[in-house]
Amino acid sequence: MKIIIVLAFVAILGALAFAGVAMVRGKEDGARKKPTMMRALAVRVGLSVALFLCILISYKLGWIQPTGIQAR
Description:
Blueprint: H1 2-24, H2 36-61
Helix pairs in contact: 1-2
């Protein structure tokens, strides 16, 4: 499960970096840009939602356990 979470984070950061590169390389003359940046950000949001749902379902099924500060 840890490998899946790490791979999802790497994919999310990759999509964010790709969107940043697309923004920097966009046309400067005011012409209509390709929707590359918007697609990359949409992929990032989709991956983030999928990761959140994966973690939530894994917790509900008992595959992962919280290990934070213990409640008194």
